[in-house]
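Record 1 of the preview.
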Amino acid sequence: MLQQSNLIVLGIIIANVLVSMKGFDDYAFLDKYKFQVSRIKGGEKVRLFTSGFLHVDWMHLILNMYVLYVFADFVANILGNNSFLIIYFGSLLAGSFYSLSYHKDEPYYSAVGASGAVSGIVYSSILLFPDMQLLLFFAIPIPGYVFGVGYLLYSIYGMKKQLGNVGHAAHLGGAIGGFALTLLLKPILFSINTTFVILLAIPILLLLFFGDKLKKF
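->
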């Protein structure tokens, strides 16, 4: 029998699959609910949320859902199901709001995907288990905290250089959301994982204080 946490994760995955499939077959539906700066600033705030359940294709969907499946139980089993849901949806919105802030002068910028929410869950897992071993390129083991810092730095660089068809701002915002919400929900991490909290916080603080300068260079 599936554990309750697995059922909750499964429900989120099924919701993503069903909504994304609808978007695959119905462009009007995709266009109505995707993230788009001009529409959101025009009052369609629901797009900040609904865009997190849409994906551009099967590969995009499968990758996000696989990563969610791998990391979700780390968070749900330690913090509980309610906290898992708070981190998931809080990170989704954090990714959307950060994207909106970063791309506010690009009215036609649009995006879809659960990457912000998934990034938040990954970052939460790393905070809870900083010494977890992750496989880089499916072969090279690296500690979780090294991955976390590298991921943030790559996202910052990707935003600046606009690398690929990837919503780096949503990834980054979601990671920040997962980081902050996990510490709020389990503040004991400040004392038991102090070094790792500081390491993961440094690039976030640099971004928050100097992020407005990214587009100037």
